[in-house]
Amino acid sequence: MNILGPFSASTNFAVDILGTPDTRPGTWGDQGVAQNITQFNPPSGYGTRILRVYGDFIAWPKGFVPTQYPATSPTEAYYAGVLWGLTTTAPGGSTRMVPGADDCMIYLQQGVRLDPVRAPFDSDVHLGGLLQPDNKLVSTMAVWLNTLGIPLHLEATFVCCYQWEKA
Question: Which of 48, 94, 161, 167 could form a disulfide with 102 if both were Cys (CB 3.0 to 4.6 A apart)?
């Protein structure tokens, strides 16, 4: 057989990120990143193709204390950007589209103020879902422009549908 599967498994990646001061031109606040790698183990002679990914990405400030913030409209002054993405281990960038990332199959971002945010998703990723020969799926989370002064708790919980294909 040239294809084995499809298969399905769920996973979760959670992290708290405060970040460090972002000194790049045109930026402010703190930024930070964390990665988690899922290792697939196909039979010898096969590779892994991710077909579909569904679940949710959530984020909220960790340890928020309302009295730490001025009474004047804290939701307008304190915020952070958060993102979650899935990539292969192929080199970043794109040969077909600039700017672009051929290795990225999902990229979600949100703005967080004081309340939690949730981004449900259900994505058919089979076109960009063929993993490199190392059969690794990279889950990346990041915080940027964080002016809250506290870490953000980020979680991606998802079901990954995949198949093994003859290499």
Answer: 94
